[in-house]
């Protein structure tokens, strides 16, 4: 499958941005909060937290689709 240069460039830029966001999110999720004692555990992630993250991701995809339609 061959794509025009403009689409190839957009795909590459999107992949780089996605990789950077994914790596940043992984770093934030894997590092423990600094203000906890050694024996203290952080609060667990709840279903409400996951639903909020899913909603935020959906809003981001919706916004990207809006940008795509305007170009």
Description of the structure:
The structure is a single chain. This protein is mostly helical. It is elongated. The chain has 2 helices and no strands. It has one domain (5-32, 44-70).
Tell me the β content: under 5%
* First-last Cα distance: 22 Å
User: Order of helices and strands, N to C?
Assistant: HH
What would you report as the Rg, rounded to the nearest angstrom?
18 Å
Task: Please tell me the overall pLDDT.
Answer: 87
Query: Strand pairing plus helix content: what structural class?
Result: mainly alpha
Number of helices: 2
Number of domains: 1
Feature tags:
71 residues; mainly alpha; 2 helices
Question: Topology of this protein?
Answer:
Blueprint: H1 5-30, H2 47-70
Quick recap of the structure?
Helix content is 70%, strand content 0%.
């Amino acid at each position: 499958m061959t794509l025009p240069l403009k689409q190839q460039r957009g795909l590459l830029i999107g992949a780089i941005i996605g990789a950077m966001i994914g790596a940043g999110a992984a770093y934030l999720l894997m590092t423990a909060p600094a203000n906890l004692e050694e024996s203290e555990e952080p609060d667990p992630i709840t279903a409400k937290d996951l639903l909020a993250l899913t909603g935020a991701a959906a809003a981001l995809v919706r916004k990207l689709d809006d940008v795509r339609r305007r170009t």
